Amino acid sequence: MEQALIYMVPALGVLGLIVMAIKSSWVTKQESGDKTMVELAGYIADGAMAFLRAEWKVLGYFAVIAMILLGWSGMMVETSSPVIAVSFLIGAFFSAFAGYIGMRIATKANVRTTQAARTSLKQALKVSFTGGSVMGLGVAGLAVLGLGSLFILFYHLYVQSVGAGVNGVEMEKALEVLAGFSLGAESIALFARVGGGIYTKAADVGADLVGKVEAGIPEDDVRNPATIADNVGDNVGDVAGMGADLFGSYVATILATMVLGREIVSEDAFGGIAPILLPMILAGLGIVFSILGMAFVTIKDEKGDVQKALNMGNWSSIIFTGIASFFIVQYMLPETLSIRGYAFSNMDVFYAIILGLIVGTLMSIITEYYTAMGKRPVMSIIKQSATGHATNIIGGLSVGMESTVLPILVLAGGIYGAYEFAGLYGVAIAAAGMMATTAMQLAIDAFGPIADNAGGIAEMSQLPEEVRGRTDILDAVGNTTAATGKGFAIASAALTSLALFAAFVGIAGIDAIDIYKADVLAGLFVGGMIPFIFSSLAIAAVGRAAMDMVNEVRRQFREIPGIMEYKAKPEYDKCVEISTKASIREMIAPGAIALITPIIVGFIFGPEVLGGVLAGVTVSGVLMGMFQSNAGGAWDNAKKSFEKGVEINGEMYYKKSEPHKASVTGDTVGDPFKDTSGPSMNILIKLMSIVALVIAPHISEGNHGETMAEKVEVKKEIKYENGKKVVTEIKKVIK
What we know:
Belongs to the H(+)-translocating pyrophosphatase (TC 3.A.10) family. K(+)-stimulated subfamily. This protein has helices spanning 2-29, 35-73, 83-117, 121-158, 169-215, 227-261, 274-294, 306-332, 346-371, 376-385, 389-402, 405-435, 438-460, 465-508, 518-559, 572-586, 588-605, 607-644, 658-699, and strands at residues 336-339, 342-345, 646-648, 651-653, 710-721, 724-734. By secondary structure, it is mainly α. The strands form three sheets. It has a two-stranded antiparallel sheet with strand order 1-2. A hairpin with a 2-residue loop joins strand 5 (710-721) and strand 6 (724-734). Helix 17 packs parallel to helix 19. It is globular and about 75 Å long.
């Protein structure tokens, strides 16, 4: 029974990859349009691949150096192994490959979505969403396959081969080596997200400032030299970057739950590893339920509600996962369990999973409210655009700050409730439940940039207005789904980081983080500062690269006669080259901060001060991520609202009006917020926690024995007698 369940995990990953291949084949077989459309799509695909090759070259050097250091450090302590270097390399490769899969299908699906939009909105949605689902299933399938296969290998290698117990130092070693997989995934994700974000926003800002504001030509106009780089950026930032991002989140969430699950003494039918296996099983079945949910994403006709169709698919996959988790928990877990003295039942674990799903859903709903067209927050920015650029900026900043209140309250309530249900394991399994439908979440998210590219190709190809009208409908919904996806990602990152933090505390041998100590309090402040300097570096990088882009576009308008009359073709490759070089150059410093800070603090000041830094960076990073992503999303949809016309004080305003120009400025400011620094916050806080977890055995203040140490504390224990819940106090508990 134990063997069958363990091998079920990678098998479900393979299932996801098989369905992904089928969907990818279907997309590829769709019509790609006329010669002009194919040519433009070719420019975008070539630019995206050029960026990935340049990025992978730099990351290859980083991966080799990191692998050598990890291999050397793995020999220093009993609870690690040089094999962690191999685990790291596999995680890095899978993360990069997940982004590559998404980017390849996106650059195929974009032009096919444009062609489908020539026939109907329903077919355009089908092509674009199927392209997004390839991305989602690829990421989830690779994560479950990689993590499940490596766990089987390390479990047999370090635990079963020596006849060791589940709760001993041998399992700790297996999971420590497995943490290398997560470290590799998150490291690549950070560079992919930051590098891709700098690329896409440098091109976008440059294209907007010169094209729309100065030259007065439409967005994605073929005459704009930066428009190809802009469309390339949608793929390398919002697709490849987001794919690597959620791959890392997915893996880190499962790993954190597994590490905490090792501390639970479980009398189950699976050799005591049920609490460790549970998050992997949830993730694997989440792929199945995401596939089922994808079938619900369809509309009947031109008047169909695209947002409603996407919500239907999302909610159905969440409901399926919630129902299935009841039977999974009842089947796998014993009636009573405990972690660090906190006793709970298997039903409490189920309640924590449901709470995680509810938190994820609420975060998406709240984010949608603050960023969607027609809602109060976006309408307030539109109204403030009537009095100029400055008031538009003020309005957007206000909306972004306000948008942190409800999500933080939901998140805080979720953390408190999950802990009440099942202690620290409850917090971790709530995050695992939230991330179970990652395949569906990412399919919805990747749909957005595909639709955006489709609209760009329609504009550049000068297709009929009705085609652009259909792609604009998809694009507007895509802006909202992108924002909700980022809200979902930051919520999962907060829960995951808390679980990783708890795992770090256990392995580092410390009992608590005492902020009354001056050095710990100092660490807390330093941690709170890191998201600000990280954001500063990322936003400044976009600004510098955008200046180069603006100068290049102006040069081409000035020096190449006939561009504005469609008589000469712009030098698109020059703009692609500017974005590529800038993103590769500028991504190093922010990435180094996330990787090096925990190492320096941990080895110089010890695990407790490092714990203070992690607490500071988590709280500050979550707030910064929400604020920036939501402000940018609201600014973007405020600008897009003018394309259909908006009423301000009884008067209608459209594109090229003064309020519209103010909204373009707001959108330009919001671009690096929502696509560079904002979404990078969730990777920052997770990566720092994972680095801390990996170095924890090296800076540990405690000794690890064959079994977990015991402490005497007064705790409450839950027992069930004749079906009734009985609460008693116990003194001897397992740490």
